[in-house]
């Protein structure tokens, strides 16, 4: 396989100084009109949500049966919305690609969920959660939405407890909390290392209860492959349904409704290897993007420093190890390349480089996720990585517990870290009580997603987007335990209020199977499927996906530069051309066909990957998870440029053969002051 | 390592299936079992033979999507999910048989993929607490003794994979059902619907064609989440109580 070369930081910084007006992405995009109205009510920040809930029109309970809603996704964001809207009496159709709604990727979340309950009386409040989230997002999120998120967070815990979610409790029977992700208050609720699972099962059960009640119909093993938009007669196109493929029979179905909600999760799998589930994809969101929904800040990716490294070219996904391990483990690599394949226990203390402690003496091993990740990549690129050589490079650093084991004993460590040491041993076959763990950063979460307004409505009327699939709450970086909070806030408490204002104008005109817009959408899906099955080339879908992932990881991963990104765009374009001419998908369209499913997803990842690179190229600043080599302080710290880049980059699809259009939404902070961070 | 794989192949639900034999060379002990199948599929694709269909998603042992009978054991020789099983549990030169879950209530869809929607329908019949969004009381208004919460959590970790059914000679889903009955039954919030829950879930279980429990214990031995057998005693006890209450 073709491994892209690395662009060194020196090469990159040769491209210019930090001052002056840049337009790195010139030629790759067209400037568009600004996005000025986010529809947040004009009220003091603490009153905006109350105001909006009051102003949003109501739908008479008798009319709700006549209104239909499609919800794509059954993760926290989708299942919670489907259950709640079903309870309210709407007719809901719920879709997922797994064989049961309970298996959505939210199930894998480990650490916990934040809420401003202030049960510990440690100074937490809605305002503090709001402040931490905006600051954590490096001042690139929308203030109104984040405030609302903090505000409804407390209701989530009440709801989940009533559903029977078995959160950890103290001896007195009250809920336990822990502090998570470097914040100074304890506001994280958890169910051992399986919080996402327990929250999702709660939402899933609420959803199944509505299935029994007849308000929700579930479509499992169904994949949305196209959005149906229909002109409402005034020249305005509205989202009116989806085209889905029954993954068992291959049938191409059309489903129409008054409104469509995408809760289809994140697209981290554009990198091929990530901590996401195998099926996570961008198809639902990307198809909507191609029909007019803007894609916001697609380059904002979160890379998690403590994952189990790649063990060989067969690797299919990466596993996250809790970040809390950095509290007791010391991170190091050998000082000398020659020691990299030695037994680490035989490398003497003076030949070890505890590089985080060396470079960041005050924070040491506890520097933020992005800094720890980049430092690990740098030492491995220098050739000092450890573990197996994959594609010629060792990508791993030691996370060494020997001092902590001496201090706390094996028993103390096991009590503190539960099953993490076992999990590591199961995957690697090495006992971390004897040999230091090896870790490496991996793609974990995407902050970017479809642009939505305060109502969570996209730029297509009638298309709402919730959970990881939208962009709104985490800015350029997400704090730990805040994605679960956002998914459930959107689905239980926000969307059900905002969507009713839209539905108050319904039911909309009846749409039949032979409506030209429906026929067009269905035919385009069939055309794509026929194409994949007829190419009969020589390369498997996975091999293309892996190569795309390598390009993205190398050039649009932890450090991005102008030269690297431009190179990546060229590489992606030619790989995509080759894919359409040379991919090999066997089997038929009429049965379960996993290669065919993957082909559709990878095709969309190519287009997304290109847009991510263009977005990263345009944003010549470093913020949150986005690090531009050209924008750093003398010490190698991320440097934001608020004067030029305090905006949301919302990209409009301009057609197959055109470059995307950039619309900017300026970020204005009225309740918070912008600051630069420092960890030295 | 080099392996001989005997794998069940079946084009679709209505066609007959058969075991096929494949040779796979250079398998790394660090691969997961499913990555080994990925490699085999790449090889098949290259040779022009349609890849083998099997389910997986999280590949971390939590979503419950994966599940294969490996040498006759549900999820293979270790206490874990198929996706967390690694090739170092096998020997060079070994012959490994791979089949789908076997149960009348889980019909085969294709190759190694089965239909487990019966589990969702059991949950629909009462595997929840009826509380509409927004109507919940303050979370601290009802304290829950720590031990009860812990026990509820321990059985709520069931991933709905179906290994218990596949391992059971009677094809019973009692372990799966007992886990849910116990999870909700341990909590104060679960009490109001306790009787109707067990009666309705058991009725649906029988209706789906799952068999009765004769206390063999193969389910708990196969369960990757180590759900204990006593959840079935709890299930039976709750059922007796509900009947006594006139259900
Ligand atoms: C390993 C791991 C640990 C994490 N830990 C935490 C944590 O401790 N705390 C925290 O706050 N966050 C955590 N996160 C992040 C968090 O889990 C996710 O961001 C969040 O669960 C996403 O929820 P969602 O509902 O938006 O999407 P998902 O749960 O990803 O659900 C997406 C849904 O969409 C469906 N879907 C997708 N595409 C299609 C299509 N084309 N057609 C039909 N259906 C489709 C899927 O079937 C699925 O039902 C973690 C993430 C990972 C990977
Ligand atoms: S009880 Fe165990 S084996 Fe049965 S479905 Fe649950 S996790 Fe799987
Ligand atoms: S793939 Fe999720 S449990 Fe195995």
Automatic annotation (TrEMBL), chain B:
Residues 1-102 form the 2Fe-2S ferredoxin-type domain. Residues 149-178 form the 4Fe-4S ferredoxin-type domain. It comes from the Bacteria. Keywords: 2Fe-2S, 3Fe-4S, 4Fe-4S, Iron, Iron-sulfur, Metal-binding, Oxidoreductase, Tricarboxylic acid cycle. The keyword Oxidoreductase applies. GO terms for biological process: respiratory electron transport chain; tricarboxylic acid cycle. GO terms for molecular function: 2 iron, 2 sulfur cluster binding; 3 iron, 4 sulfur cluster binding; 4 iron, 4 sulfur cluster binding; electron transfer activity; metal ion binding; succinate dehydrogenase (quinone) activity. Binds 1 [2Fe-2S] cluster. Binds 1 [4Fe-4S] cluster. The keyword 4Fe-4S applies. It catalyses: a menaquinone + succinate = a menaquinol + fumarate. InterPro entries: 2Fe-2S_ferredoxin-like_sf, 2Fe-2S_ferredoxin-type, 2Fe2S_fd_BS, 4Fe4S_Fe-S-bd, 4Fe4S_Fe_S_CS, Beta-grasp_dom_sf, Helical_ferredxn, SDH/FRD_Iron-Sulfur. Its cofactor is [2Fe-2S] cluster; [4Fe-4S] cluster; [3Fe-4S] cluster. Pfam families: Fer2_3 (PF13085), Fer4_8 (PF13183). Its EC number is 1.3.5.1. It is an enzyme of class 1 (oxidoreductase). Belongs to the succinate dehydrogenase/fumarate reductase iron-sulfur protein family. This is Fumarate reductase iron-sulfur subunit. It comes from Nocardioides ganghwensis.
